[in-house]
Amino acid sequence: MAVPFPVVDRPDAPTVLVASLDVTDERVQRTVAEQLCIDWQREPWPADVVSLNCFLSTDGANVLAYIQCTSERPSADLPGLRTLGAEPIAYRVYRSLTTPEETRVPGCLVTALFTVDGPERQRRFVDSLIAALPEDDGHPGAISAHFHLSLDGGWMLNYTEWTSQEAHGEAAASGAHDDLHDLFANTPGVQPLGGKRYHLHRSLTAPVG
């Protein structure tokens, strides 16, 4: 059974911490992911965290932690993140593209990361991206998109949910993303750093009571 993806736009989690680690192969990737979850469960659950979601890139080269927090300024010193050895970036979801009646289940996360030169540029860049999207429903495998702006004004993360890795591959191969790639490359103050496809490995939620 597939692990349910987190609800990205939940109102009780305004801030998200994202950390990732590049690894050499799938064996190391899985070992790091399992150790992350073990470390997290060994220590008391942080009071301002509602979920930890551990994603594995489909190329076997990266582990990503997506941590939803209730605090506006959450602590980056969380127990499991020491396993990754990476400083997390704190984000807020700026805009989301979703359909209220959506019933499809996400099977693949696709990320795109950008450096941006300040909060105003962050917002303008996302607004331009959304304005450039096709007016129709796009590829049938695309479920939702959530545009995250870092609190320090230096990053933008696009978090998109797809039905499957294959569906995203088909959309990319068809040229459906070409206009957006031109926008990425030609927007002053914005530098694309690439993206990855992920499967959700494990999702841990805050204990009840």
TrEMBL record:
Q: Tell me, what is one Gene Ontology molecular-function annotation carried by this entry?
A: monooxygenase activity
Please give the InterPro entries that the UniProt record associates with this protein: Dimeric_a/b-barrel
Alphabetized Gene3D superfamilies for the sequence: 3.30.70.100
What are the entry keywords?
Answer: Monooxygenase, Oxidoreductase
Q: What is this protein called?
A: Antibiotic biosynthesis monooxygenase
Gene source species: Amycolatopsis nalaikhensis
